[in-house]
């Protein structure tokens, strides 16, 4: 069967992230026999950064659906067959037979070469190396464990994110009194935080569960993907960490002055993004990555900074492209827009795929300092701590000052300690002399 015969009709699993080899199906939006138009959402997949929606590439009828929700499929695996003939299209059987052959080969030889639809000619023409997929076995008891009421609580009809449930439990909030702002009325953490005081209607109750009782909670597809990627990062990348304290008083005052005098609204984190971009332009050895398959260094030509954003489903890293060429007002506007889209799950693939460097800021949560895990294939990530007050002795006079600890995590295969230290020295100089942040070369 020629590839050209399938290209017009088959929607396959795309390569949705630089390091991904397989993706879990989060949701399927269409049914067999239904008519769709180009641009309609067919299904969504979970990457290590976000949930990505896959659109129809042509008008037609859903002839066959080859994927199932919550199952993982490899890149280029056929997902949905669309054609004007719908379920009567004779090519459906050919694709079904091909998928059955792939499944059989994967069972017999899970780590050997398998056949895939090749873009170079005939199906089954060329062998491609398959990456071994580890099956995640989740045990769910058919009956609740004695004394464990958690399974009963899940049947209460209240839809809430895990973060919202934990926050409600900590604060003693009655979830049944809260109207959710998430999809299908799901209660999010922000809904709990914004709940009126009258909804904190009863004190915390002691758990009635039997000591030691528990239940299993299935990981979301996105959380599983994040876990797999970060585990691989710690196992494969030789991390080392460098920390530096940076005085922030001039930057805080500079930010306040820009806001009051010129109406420029930007957060401290926006200035950190700008400073990092300027620093990277002067230390391009940090603006690199590593390709594990080719065992080669990736030297990016542009400074594209990813920003770690926490959502109810996990960590997402939207990207500020060519951040070194943008004014602080443009960075502030772009960051705000991307963060809103990230928390609503509305990021497009080009808005989070790629990036040459990452910033992770936990300062707003009061974290003093931490070492972040490198985001592959990048070679470095900058962790930002909170603003700390301290007393500085200068010319015999004690003054109150503020500083922040920045920690650079590096891939030692690419970056040496001296290179990382020089990066932090330049970064410190820029932050402590913030007027230069307005200069764009």
Give an account of the 3D structure.
The protein has 441 residues and is of the alpha+beta class. It folds into 3 domains: 3-128, RNA polymerase II/Efflux pump adaptor protein, barrel-sandwich hybrid domain (OB fold (Dihydrolipoamide Acetyltransferase, E2P)); 140-217, Dihydrolipoamide Transferase; 237-438, Chloramphenicol acetyltransferase-like domain (Chloramphenicol Acetyltransferase, 2-Layer Sandwich). It contains 11 helices and 21 strands. The protein has helices spanning 3-7, 91-108, 150-153, 162-171, 189-193, 221-236, 249-262, 268-282, 328-343, 349-352, 417-432, and strands at residues 10-12, 22-28, 35-36, 41-46, 51-55, 60-65, 72-74, 78-83, 114-115, 127-128, 239-247, 288-291, 296-299, 305-307, 309-311, 314-316, 319-320, 357-361, 380-384, 388-394, 397-411. The longest helix is centred in the N-terminal third of the chain and has 18 residues, at 91-108. Residues 111-156 and 198-202 have low confidence and may be disordered.
